[in-house]
């Protein structure tokens, strides 16, 4: 979940970011966290092998965090772009 909050705080200067950006960043982070806990609790593999970064005990955690942070950041920026298109007046419109 914390990885989903990182883009919300670090990219809060983007004026078009709104509720959609929050949801696109927060929920994937929460889902990745829940899946990681389930993976450990059930002693099963949920994430594929290509997610692992490095070697050792925490290689899967590093991979999930790096790829999850990239996904959450992309979701935040997509939400800001969608909101920007909805808020921005059209070129020929009178204001």
Which SSEs are present, and which pair or pack?
Elements lengths: L1 H9 L8 H24 L16 H29 L8
Helix pairs in contact: 1-2, 1-3, 2-3
Please give a structural write-up.
- The structure is a single chain.
- The chain has helices spanning 2-10, 19-42, 59-87.
- The protein is 65% helix and 0% strand.
- It has one domain.
- The protein is elongated and about 50 Å long.
- The termini are far apart.
- The chain contains three helices and no strands.
- The longest helix is centred in the last third of the chain and has 29 residues, at 59-87.
- The model has no long low-confidence stretch (mean pLDDT 88).
- 19% of the residues are buried.
- By secondary structure, the chain is mainly α.
- Helix 2 (19-42) runs antiparallel to helix 3 (59-87).
Beta-strand share of residues: under 5%
Contiguous low-pLDDT stretches (5 residues minimum) are none
Can you count the helices? 3
Helix percent reads 55-70%
Q: How would you sum up the major sheet?
A: none
Please tally the β strands and state the result: 0
Overall shape = elongated
- Mean of residue pLDDT? 88
C-alpha end-to-end distance: 41 Å
- Kindly name the structural category: mainly alpha
Task: Give the tally of structural domains.
Answer: 1
Q: Please tell me how large the radius of gyration is.
A: 17 Å
Order of helices and strands: HHH
